[in-house]
Amino acid sequence: MVKTTKSANLLFDGKNFDLPMKSPSIGPDVIDIGKLYNEADIFTFDPGFTSTASCESSITYIDGDKGELLYRGYPIDQLAEKSHFLEVCYLLLYGELPTSPQLNDFENRVTMHTMVHEQMHNLFRGFRRDAHPMAIMVGVVGAMSAFYHDSTDINDQMQREISSIRMIAKVPTIAAMAYKYSIGQPYVYPRNDLDYASNFLRMCFSVPAQEYEPNPILSRAMDRIFTLHADHEQNASTSTVRLAGSSGANPFACIAAGIACLWGPAHGGANQACLEMLHEIGSLDRIPEYINRAKDKDDPFRLMGFGHRVYKNFDPRAKVMKESADEVLELLGIENNEILQIAKELERIALEDEYFIEKKLYPNVDFYSGIILDAMGFPTSMFTPIFALSRTVGWISQWKEMIADPVQKIGRPRQLYSGPVERDYIKLENR
Ligand code: SDX
């Protein structure tokens, strides 16, 4: 799909360098600087990769100005409305929407792998009860490489396939076990007769004394949250997974690295931080105080759930999430939920404020997701584990694409060195 079309000319130090350019199927052209250092003995400099494409990918495309998100070319709002998470997993992994037999086979393969090795239960007991579930997920997902040796050889296509299915199937079970462990309740085993989202809700909320009957509307909302978070181009955690994978690390270790990166409040931890911020604001009349703090250069406070590296318009996922929030809260009879009112008023005021308009700061995927998860009964500490559960298929799809990329090599950025030039050692007595 990608063609080398024209070239860019760099005039440096009196010399001309022709740099080949590649044109994508959609989006900006790129300048291939792969040979720049060898030919011109210079590096490019782009901290945070604001203008740098790290790879070629055909999985997800974001148009930040239009507020568009495509999974393998399909708009996210269509998939959120018409598809369901395991079908979206198939699409992200294999590139096309499945036929009915393909979907049934895929769903059966995932269903047959939802249980974890019984000895993994012992891993949880090594954590304090008040450990953050993300700490447990980083550890337990990483430890999967110690249990599933038959799917760690990245050069074996079949093993890559099995490890992919195992992670998509088992991460919800691990997330639910982390939750149960944190509240001192017994683990709930997955059931093969439930769909993916209902299974996860039941593993979280069922207790031996009281069976949990998944409410179809809550299961649908949970499934939609999974779909909305499934993949998102080369975000920080996906880039972490790709970089870890470029060294040949096993897939479980790579996904554990992605979970660790996602945990940060600037990334996947924002949904927890956002709901905690809304609770801290506490009432409509305190919103202006927080808007002013967000605008104050000397105040590190940022409006959690607002802003995005790529979206300079509405995050299309936030729109779907907002509709879902209204639906779920109405179903639960808490449509007058004060937190939701604060969120909506905060959004309205921020979107009228010169600072947010000028900096093109809009609500992102994390702004409303926490309100839904809170209403469903999840503690804020489970918000990011649910994001990680959803993003596992995106990380794996990107990891598989990287492994199969013929030009793939170990990722090894260079630097702009600003340290001391060479100097001789000084004996202690002479310092
Ligand atoms: C996710 O990359 C992805 O795709 C991520 C994600 C995915 O699906 O994987 O979409 C998931 O991580 C969503 C983002 C969740 N994070 C938050 O909600 C945390 C709050 N947002 C900010 O931390 C920030 O907006 C980022 C980290 C999301 C984006 O940061 P950038 O692109 O590096 O932008 P920036 O920090 O350079 O901000 C640009 C300007 C700055 O002002 P100036 O220095 O130019 O004067 O906007 C300001 C910032 O101070 N700004 C904010 C703000 N976000 C940016 N000011 C107040 N509140 C905010 N939330």
Q: So what's the oligomer here?
A: single chain
Percent of residues in beta strands?
5-15%
How far the N terminus sits from the C terminus, by CA atoms, comes to 62 Å
Q: Strand arrangement, largest sheet? A: 1-2-3
Helix count, per DSSP? 18
Main sheet summary = 3 strands, antiparallel
Task: Explain how this protein is built.
With 431 residues, this protein is mostly helical. It is built from 18 helices and 6 strands. The strands form 2 sheets. A 3-stranded antiparallel beta sheet has the order 1-2-3. A 3-stranded antiparallel beta sheet has the order 4-5-6. A hairpin with a 6-residue loop joins strand 2 (15-23) and strand 3. Helix 12 crosses helix 17 (365-376). The N and C termini lie far apart (62 Å). S-citryldethia Coenzyme A (SDX) is lined by residues 232, 235, 266-268, 270, 294, 302-309, 359, 361, 364-366.
